Each structure stands twice: as structure tokens, then as C-alpha cells.
Amino acid sequence: MKPFSEPAAVGQWSAEAIGGAARPGRSCPIDYFYGAASLARPATLEVESLWVAGGLYGNRYALERLLELYAAEPGVKALVFNGDFHWFDADPAEFGYINRTVLEHGATRGNVETELAQPGAQAGCGCGYPEWVGDAEVARSNRILERLRAASQTMSGELALLRELPMTLVAEVAGVRVAVVHGDADSLAGWGFSQERLATTEGLRAARRAVRVAQVRVLASSHSCLPVLQRVDRDALIANNGAAGMPNFRAGNCGLATRIASSPRAGALYGARAGGLFVDAVSLDYDQTAWRERFLELWPEGSDAHRSYYARITQGPAYDRDRACRTV
Ligand SMILES: [Fe+2]
User: Fold this and answer.
1) 86 C-alpha to ligand 1 centroid (Å)
2) pLDDT tens-digit readout, 16-34
3) pLDDT recorded at residue 4
4) I need a labelling partner for 228 at 20 to 30 A (CA). Which of 4, 156, 218, 305 fits?
5) pLDDT category, 320, cuts 50, 70, 90?
6) Distances from the Cα of 10 to the Cαs of 55, 157, 202, 209, in angstroms?
7) Whole-model pTM?
8) Cα 164 to averaged position of ligand 1 atoms, centre (Å)
9) Beta-carbon neighbour count of residue 41 at 10 Å?
10) Which residues contact 11 (CB under 8 A, 6 or more apart)?
């Protein structure tokens, strides 16, 4: 997951990110790769509305707010947590609560769950960080994962459930094909659907190719920690959820969920249409005060997570909503 800081520049994919020499937090285990063609398979879920919540990051208050909103959704529906639902919950009781509650719904593995359940040699946090994320931030991310692993190590049953989760999911929403991934169309920890990559001509072209290969109208992702709703074709969207469990915009204080449905969402932060579907960003206005207090108990000042994320948790990232919605 990407920390608070803005990239100085958008670099190219590093050799490590696609399986070169291992560097913890930079490189990806080879079994993270599935390829966009694997998404061109029959759907295993048929619903009228699909909620996708990526990047919960162990925030129980965001989880509870999400479940309240989702409970009010009518019709045939599903909620899928598309990875990294653990991160700040480095406490056995907290970890168990998040795990049990999330797994009452649909879920796919993120790199965090994968590195907890089946650690890759020298994968570190498994984030596959690109060059625009600094080495110090990557090192802190690796140490956060180590602490989370220590907190969860006695829960073999919970970890076994994580190990069995799929990396991707294909659904039909009101008869329209939608794929859910954690990173991008090729890899669990790919950054191809990050707002930084989608802002480049090459990145946009690759995303367009991905939706065509996957034969979907919507590709829902997460992982890169900043949201973007990007039109990549006349009738196709990439919907990167950003973070369900952290603020997503400057001076903002809410998490996000992505709702994909045959009807629009009243009060959505922003949205667009593709293939007859409405894709909307739903605000998760969780209890900020309670979450800050809990975060500080788990990650006090001076800790790795505090240094990387507290500014974002309290002030939001240096990113604005109008940059996230790229649908014209
Ligand atoms: Fe991730």
C-alpha cells in the first residue's frame, strides 16, 4: 500500500517489479502473476449490485460503517473485500475481529493477506512498490508487515482461511461482466491501475488493452491506496477504490467503497456509467475520533505506521477528488 507522500515523478516499471532480483517490498513473488487473459473466464457471481471495498487496512470503524451502508442496499447483492483488509490491526484480538467479520462476505487476497498466509521468500510486505515510493517508506512497510505477522502467528485457522482466498473474482452485475482484482489485470501487486500510471499515455493504453483481454466493462482494483475512476474505453472503466479505511482526499476524512449496479447511488461522491452499469464512489464516514485513538494505541508516535500514515489519517493525502474522477 502506498504511504502518504506524493510521487516526485512517475517512473517506469522496475525489473524487480516483474520478477527480477528479489528486494523486499519492491519485488513480487512469481505466483502473484495471473495475467489479464485469466479474467476472461465465466463469472462465478451474479448480482444486481456489487460493492467492492479495497484497502480497509484493519480499520474496524470503517468496516462497521461500510456494513451499515451495505445492509441498506436492496435486491440481490454482494460485498467483496478486494484485499489488504489487514494492515494496522497488529493486535491478536483486533486481527481476529477483522478477519472473522470480513470473511462473512466475499473476499479476495491482497498482498498483505498473502504475505501473512504464505510468506514469499524476501517478498517483504509484497507491495511491489514502484520507483516513486522512497526506500525509507518501503522499509517501514516491510516492518509493519513483520509486526502484523507476529500478531497473527498464533491464529493458524484464520491464516488458513486467508490462504484459500482467490486472487481475482469475475462477476456479472445485471448481466454485465465485471472483474475484481487487488493490483492490476496482470498481478496481485501490480501498479498498472494506480492513478499515477493511469495518468500516462502508456498506462492508459495498457488499461484499455486489459479490459478488452479480460472481456469486462469494469475492472475494480485497489492496492495503490489512492482512488481513481478512469474511463479507458468508450464503454469501460477502471475503478480503483483507493482506501476504505483511510481518508482519500486532501482535508478529507472518509474512506471509500465502490458500488457497481444497474441503478445509480444517491449521494455518491462521483460516478460514471459503463455497459449500462453505474459505478459510484461511496463515502464511508466512519468515526474518525475513535479510529485515531485506536490507531495511536496500536501505532504510537515514532512507530513505523505512525511515521508513514498518521499525517494522512489526520489530514488526508495531497490528492483531490476532481483528480480521481477521470470519466469524460
Ligand atoms: Fe496491496
Assistant:
1) 10
2) 444 445 678 887 788 999 9
3) 34
4) 305
5) very high
6) 22, 40, 12, 20
7) 0.92
8) 17
9) 13
10) 130, 131, 132
